[in-house]
Amino acid sequence: MIRAVILDMDGVIVDSEHHWKLAAAEYLRGLFPGWSAAHEEKAVGLGVADLYHWLVREFGLKEEKAEFLARCHQLAEEVYLKRVACTPRLLDFLSRCAHKGLKLGLASSSPRAWIDMVLRRFELAGSFSAVVCADDVPEGRTKPMPDIYLKCLERLGARADEALAVEDSTFGVAAAKAAGLRCAAFRNGHNAGQDLSKADFEFSSFLELNLAG
Fold it and tell me: Is residue 22 part of a domain?
């Protein structure tokens, strides 16, 4: 029986993944002229620190980490405070969860400051009993590692076998499954390039997400 639901933020709570691609494309193409849509897909779901290290390894990024993170934070303010919208039917889904007495958690590889932008803008802070982010785990232990999910379960006081994760990326699904959760993969209209085959099932609208099992 499901007693807790843990949601990813980007691409699940808000429609941010494609906004991130648009906002970051010019910046990353300026750094790497060969930057392509295929590279964008590989970066989806990575925490910003992990993205930095991946760019250093794969592309020889020369920017200092602090400079890169500061630029990403500027992009985050544009994305989260101006561009994104709350996912359709999400609020109805959260209400259904509350009505059923389910514990709600948020598990994201984004920094706390970015999550706070979303929670404040859409007045969602009161919806979640636990919020776990990149700041809460050691660097390098964000998705696809299970640490964020494990910590979120701990804060919710829930077991993995009674929790459902909602994810939209390959890395997110991998993290949820590695932590022992059932995982519902959200096909949000912008993630066709993501391999979600390791999820227990897929859905395309929060209206159809079943909480019975």
Answer: yes
